Amino acid sequence: LVLVSTGYATDGFYDEMRPQQAQVSAAAAEFMKDTPMYKSYVAVAPHPEEFPKLLDALGGFMRQNRDYSADVAKLKMPVMLVYGDSDMYKPEHEIKFYQMLGGGLKDAGWMRENLSQNRLAILPNRTHYDVFFAPELTAAALPFLNGQTKVKTWDEVVGEME
After folding, report:
1. Distances 55 to 18, 31, 129 between C-alpha atoms, Å
2. Into how many domains does the chain fold?
3. Which pLDDT belongs to residue 151?
4. 107 and 44 share a domain?
5. Do 78 and 151 belong together in one domain?
6. Which structural domain, as residue segments, surrounds residue 79?
């Protein structure tokens, strides 16, 4: 499972984001026609005229206070979290999410014996709004999804030098 720019609780957003999110509704549709969001929607939506309905649904969802922290432990499969380094989620929220999955709780060890099955990727020079089409996302996520998580240990690299 790869979760891109996803939080587990509403308090993970920067404080200034919440009032902006609360304003998202069909009433904003006309003002959003020059935005990449609208242009992307129109390019793929079977019914572009329903963009205002999408905004109402998104706004309604974003106005709710959510906390799924109790559900994070139920994710037993390997999980990769991916964020931009300038994401709308606070870095401490991203780290806490990773820790709740069991990652980043201790050193991985010389031979990677304590390495978590989960991964955290923070992509440089990316935001919530462009991380999803970053080539770095594909480069990180595809090997993870294909189960190609094995990398050489320090000892293996040194052995190749001998």
Report:
1. 15, 12, 16
2. 2
3. 80
4. no
5. yes
6. 2-10+71-161
Q: What is the pLDDT of residue 14?
A: 95
99 in the same domain as 24: no
End-to-end CA distance of the chain: 38
The DSSP output letter for 82 is E
Q: What is the pLDDT of residue 57?
A: 97
> What is the C-alpha separation between 113 and 58, in angstroms, rounded?
42
**Percentage of residues of the chain with pLDDT beyond 70:** 100
In angstroms, rounded to a whole number, what is the distance separating the alpha carbons of residues 34 and 73? 41
- Mean pLDDT, range 88-100, rounded to an integer: 98
Percentage of residues in the chain having pLDDT higher than 90: 86
Query: Rounded CA gap, 57 and 29, in Å?
Result: 12
H helix runs in 2-153, sequence order: 17-22, 36-44, 51-62, 69-72, 91-100, 135-145
How far apart are the C-alpha atoms of 20 and 70, rounded to whole Å? 27
Q: Identify the pLDDT of residue 41.
A: 96
Are 162 and 124 contacting, i.e. CB atoms less than 8 angstroms apart? no
